[in-house]
Amino acid sequence: MIIREKIQNNERKVLIPYAAFSASTKGRHLEEEDDEIRTPYMVDRDRIIHSKSFRRLKHKTQVYIKTSSDHYRTRLTHTLEVAQIAKTIGKGVGLNEDLIEAIALGHDIGHVAFAHNGEEVLNKLLPGGFKHNVNSVRVLTRIEKQGKGLNLTSEVLDGILYHSGFSTSAKKSYTLEGQVVKYSDKIAYVNHDIDDSIRAGLLKEAEIPIELLKTLGESHSTRIDTLVKNCIYSTLKNIDSNKPEVTLSSDIEKTLSELRNFMFENIYKGVILQEERNKARFVLEQVFIHFYNHPENMPEFYRTIVDKEGLYQGVADYIAGMSDDYCLATFNKIYVPKFVIY
């Protein structure tokens, strides 16, 4: 028996009926032969890990721009934390961990430099707006491999597309695995951003509303433990009631939402980081304006996109792919005077 088939047989034995079985995938845009060792979701996971866009996440900001410490999260370490939390929830519920891992590793691959500041800049400059989740799918389907894309499965792309947003009314992934990643993303970033903010001296534990800590826990690990277990048990309860969806219990979801709002008000949108956010926006805007006015200075691949899909799209693709360091270096090359006489 082919090893992939053995793995797929094991899925049927250990996963719950509502799981996404790799043998039943809706498939890829371009049909291809199955791998003899790996299931389709394992192939997708590996393709994402080996992509250039995934590697660039190590130099893209999570919250804090140009830190001098190696201990703060980057977009890459955030992605790894999301994947680990999601796999734990998936294992507890009985879902397909390979699909969960592929979605989690690719969910933020379309993020712009300088955290959400970059997304806000492109959203303002582009006529059709800009959303990082939509761009993640674009990067994986239209940008990687010089425009060929990675030819990922429908389930992975759907999970990536619908991972964003906190509102319960937002559209959900059609797989429970995708829904797990959506919750895991929130669990990860709210808690690790608290951890980083305390490390940076911008937040004290005592400043967090005590009622939120009493419900979720007074330490980083305790809060994650509370949220992960609650997500598992709430989801299993839903499944037992023939309502297959991933949720937190109403009280825990409300508390997490309040903690997230606290972070937005005091850290993400707070006055402490306002000056650095403004600098980041200025840099991105100026780099965008330069290449919009001089598309001939972009690499050939992006000039081809300009010819096929228009100037805004080509420039947006080029800017969105830049890491923080590359964007700053580009800004300096364009706008900062150089010594030409010694």
What can you tell me about this protein's structure?
This protein has 342 residues and is mainly α. The protein has one domain: Hypothetical protein af1432 (Orthogonal Bundle), CATH 1.10.3210.10. Helix content is 61%, strand content 0%. It is built from 16 helices and no strands. The chain has helices at 3-14, 40-49, 52-56, 75-93, 97-106, 115-125, 132-143, 154-161, 176-199, 210-216, 220-240, 250-268, 274-293, 300-309, 311-320, 324-335. This is Deoxyguanosinetriphosphate triphosphohydrolase-like protein. Belongs to the dGTPase family. Type 2 subfamily. Residues 75-190 form the HD domain. It comes from Clostridium omnivorum.
How many domain regions? 1
Evaluate the radius of gyration: 21 Å
Q: So what's the oligomer here?
A: single chain
Distance between the termini: 72 Å
The chain-level structural class is: mainly alpha
Q: In the CATH classification, which architecture applies?
A: Orthogonal Bundle
Could you list some keywords that capture this structure?
16 helices, globular, Hypothetical protein af1432, 342 residues, mainly alpha
Structural topology:
Elements: H1 3-14, H2 40-49, H3 52-56, H4 75-93, H5 97-106, H6 115-125, H7 132-143, H8 154-161, H9 176-199, H10 210-216, H11 220-240, H12 250-268, H13 274-293, H14 300-309, H15 311-320, H16 324-335
In short:
This protein has 342 residues and is mostly helical. 61% of the residues lie in helices and 0% in strands.
